[in-house]
Amino acid sequence: MDRVMWIQRSDARYPGGEGAGIETRHAFSFSGHYDPGNVRFGSLVACNEERLAPGAGFAEHPHRDMEIVTWVVEGELTHEDSTGARIVVRPGDVQRLSAGSGVRHTERNAGAEPLTFVQMWLMPGPAAATDPGYEVVRGIADGTPYALERTEAVLHVRRLADGERTALPDAPWVYAHAVRGAVRIEGETLTPGDAARISGAEGLAARAEGPAELLIWEMHTEPVYG
């Protein structure tokens, strides 16, 4: 696979959000927005930036056949679902909800401060378990890979000092999302909300321009339908 890198700027995301106090920015086709040329990248089918005012949230709704990973940028996310999980997710925590054959959940800002989080949806493999699953890793350490058991994808969380470099995974599909600060990849600078989609990634690195936080998806398969 030849290497190709495409940058999506934060202001190029599709605006969405339903309900008072909710602001959403979609990286891919989602809900009422459909672009046939932008439905997924590797196994990643959604990367939504969500901003919830105090008291705002998403009412109970269903999911199935999806791996949902959430990263809180600021504030606190209160999550409840039909697996019995009820938990508050804070910055530095990785939350995973495996929808399996079906799960229902709510997400809301029950705190007094604004909430911002990034939520990423990945398609599981054809042999994925059907039972829903839930996990929160508290305060994941910098550089610790978080592998999704139900799909061939790994999340790498990097918190970089000014001038620090981090190698990007060698993988068919790499998705790098800037959370804080600025990082430079192959002559392009990413600022918060920007993302790089790299196919055929090999021998690449990201360099921080000031303190930065970066979410990097390493993906080795594409969804299989039918």
TrEMBL record:
Keywords: Dioxygenase, Oxidoreductase
Source taxon at top rank: Bacteria
The Quercetin 2,3-dioxygenase C-terminal cupin domain, residue ranges: 153-219
Pfam families, sorted: Pirin (PF02678), Pirin_C_2 (PF17954)
An annotated Gene Ontology molecular function: dioxygenase activity
Residues of the Pirin N-terminal domain: 20-122
Family of this protein: Belongs to the pirin family.
The protein's name: Quercetin 2,3-dioxygenase
Organism field: Streptomyces malaysiensis
